[in-house]
Design goal:
The chain is mostly helical. The protein has one helix and no strands.
Length: about 130
């Protein structure tokens, strides 16, 4: 092989290598482009999932707050009813004590009346006995 032939073969080999490298570069560029597209579409999907989760959590939170508010109103009503019942019970207790005192007073009056009646009967009996003696 003459030096010119060796040089021609060498140049041809360089051209082949450059073509292969160029093809590799094009393949790598294509892969990079596809990866970039995939990455951004996944990023967008993640963003949509995040937004959906935030919406769901916000809605759940609002529902729980509403339920809590309803329960608080119910408890407040129940506390009010308990207060009313306690007041009514206090009034009834007071009335019962008053009635008990009045009953005791009436019993005392009845006992006094019974004693008076007994005294009158004794007196009437004595007078009747005296009347017989006369």
């Amino acid at each position: 092989g003459s030096p010119r032939t060796v040089r021609a073969l060498s140049a041809e080999a360089c051209d082949k290598r450059a073509e292969l490298q160029s093809a590799e570069i094009q393949t790598l560029k294509k892969m990079l482009s596809e990866s970039r597209t995939t990455f951004f579409s996944q990023l967008q999907a993640c963003g949509q999932q995040k937004d959906a989760m935030i919406d769901h959590l916000t809605q759940s939170s609002e529902e729980l707050q509403s339920e809590l508010h309803e329960r608080q109103k119910t408890v407040a009503k129940q506390v009010g009813r308990i207060h009313d019942l306690e007041t009514a019970l206090a009034v009834q207790t007071s009335q019962t004590e008053h009635l008990s005192k009045q009953t005791g007073h009436l019993i005392s009056l009845l006992e006094a009346l019974q004693e008076d009646v007994a005294e009158h009967q004794k007196t009437a009996l004595r007078q009747a006995n005296r009347g017989h003696e006369l």
